[in-house]
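The material for today's practical consists of a large collection of protein records. An example says more than a description, so a record of this kind follows:
***
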Amino acid sequence: MLKRIKSAAWGLLNQTGLGGSVQLYLDGALKQYGWFKSFHAKQSIDINGNPLPWYTYPFILFLKPRLKPGFQVFEYGSGNSTRWYAARVEHITAVEHDREWIALIKPKLPANTEVLERPLGDNYVKSVQSTGARYHIIVVDGRNRVKCAKYAVDFLTPDGVLILDNSEREWYTGAKEYLAAKGFRRLDFIGMAPIVGIETCTSVFYRDGNCLGI
C-alpha cells in the first residue's frame, strides 16, 4: 500500500513538473556535498555537519587529498576553513580583524592553530611575517586581498602555493596579474560553494615542483 502511495505521489509531482526538483533535493550532488544543510544552517559545513572551507566544491575535492600532515598554512580570514585545515596539516595560523568573530571561533579551534588579531591596514596585510615562518599554503580569503596576495607571496616555501578565493571578481585582477608576473601559473575551479546559490571561482597559484603536485 505504502509503495503505491509513493508511486502515486511521484506521478503527481512529475505531472506538475516538480519531480525533478524533488529528486535533486533528495539525491543530487548538492545534497551529497551538504549544500542544502549549509544553506539552512548558514555555515560552511558538509552533509554530516563537519566544517568546510568556503571554497567551490570542485576545489575542496581537488585540495583535500593533496594536503599533507607536515604542511604549514597561513590564512587571511578565519572560520570553518581553519578548523578544516587543522584536522589535516601540522599547523595553521590565521589573521582576523573582527574581535567578536575571534571570540566565537577561537573556542572551536584545536591546539595546532593560532589566530592573530590585527586591525585592518598594514598590520593585517603584513601579519604573515609575524611568526618568522614560511608556508606551504597561503590562503587569501579575507580583507584587502590584492595587497595581501602581493605581500604574502614572499613568505611561501619554495614549493608553496597561494589560494585566492572569489577570484572571478574584477577588483582582484591586480593580484592575479602580479602573481603571473612573479612566475606563478593559475588553475581555476569554478562552481558552487557552501551556503550561497551562486557560481564563484577559487584559484590556486603554483610553480613547478609545488607541494600539491600540480
About this structure: Confidence is low (pLDDT under 50) at residues 5-10, 18-25. Residues 46-206 form a domain with the Rossmann fold fold (CATH 3.40.50.150).
